[in-house]
Specification:
Elements: E1 8-11, E2 18-19, H1 23-33, H2 40-55, H3 65-83, H4 89-98, E3 106-107, H5 111-118, E4 123-128, H6 133-140, E5 149-152, H7 153-156, H8 163-173, E6 180-184, H9 187-196, E7 199-203, E8 216-217, H10 223-231
Parallel strand pairs: 1-4, 1-6, 4-5, 6-7, 7-8
Antiparallel strand pairs: 2-3
Helix pairs in contact: 1-2, 2-3, 3-4, 8-9
Length: about 230
């Protein structure tokens, strides 16, 4: 079998391929579907304690699916205590599954058409910070089938913009950094990719730029044309 010589493109996940659904929206909709009406404003109030715990910088990050499941259980337990149903184990289990944030990832409208267009000419991969749930979100957003491989920084052992994150992802895919592209919406991660030796496209959905070294696009729809320009 001849080697696959197509150029590789590593896509960031959150902010590049999909956006988040706010947790109060998720919990409100899940509970309503279960016959327990709860408005988004009230859900936000009941989730405030769980969100403080979730955002606590001293909380160690989860590196595995099992550790992330344990986190979800704690998050739901804190909500259930505020909700007044701390002993309802059946409801807690339903929330752990149905209110899993990754299930509610919202793909950007420009993501799938561009991935579909690029897939025949490029080797597509995901390089995301965070744990395995970030890759679950790509799958739930309906985009997982476009990627040859997907890597989460906490599983790799290094996160962007650490140079090791880019190096490890390229090694696992079997490509060189110099022959790979990175598409990322975070300036620091884009700069890290350039420092590591990758060719970088900065996705500026909200404005801003990582500097003059990387071409900047406002939508993924601009990516195929830009790549063709640089590949000539």
């Amino acid at each position: 079998m001849s080697p696959d010589t197509r150029p590789a493109i590593f896509f960031d996940a959150l902010g590049t391929l999909f956006d988040l659904t706010p947790p109060q929206v998720i919990f409100s909709r899940v509970l309503s579907a279960l016959g327990r009406e709860l408005g988004e404003e009230e859900a936000a109030r009941l989730l405030s304690r769980a969100n403080r715990w979730w955002l606590d910088p001293s909380r160690p990050p989860s590196r595995t699916t099992e550790e992330e499941l344990d986190e979800r259980r704690v998050y739901v337990r804190l909500f259930m205590e505020e909700y007044g149903h701390a002993r309802d184990a059946a409801l807690a289990e339903q929330l752990e599954e149905q209110a899993y944030w990754a299930r509610w990832a919202q793909p950007f409208s420009d993501a799938e058409p561009v991935l579909q267009e690029l897939q025949p000419e490029y080797r597509l991969a995901v390089l995301s910070n965070g744990g395995p749930s970030s890759l679950d979100a790509v799958r739930y957003a309906g985009l997982g089938g476009y990627f040859e491989q997907m890597y989460a920084g906490l599983e790799l052992g290094a996160q962007k913009p650490d140079a090791r994150a880019y190096e490890l992802a390229a090694q696992r895919l079997g490509v060189s950094l110099q022959d790979s592209w990175l598409v990322d919406d975070t300036a620091a991660n884009a700069e890290g990719g350039m420092t590591a030796g990758m060719r970088v496209v900065f996705l500026s959905r909200q404005g801003g730029s990582p500097g003059d070294s990387a071409p900047t696009i406002a939508s993924l729809a601009e990516l195929p044309k830009l790549l063709k320009t640089y590949m000539r």
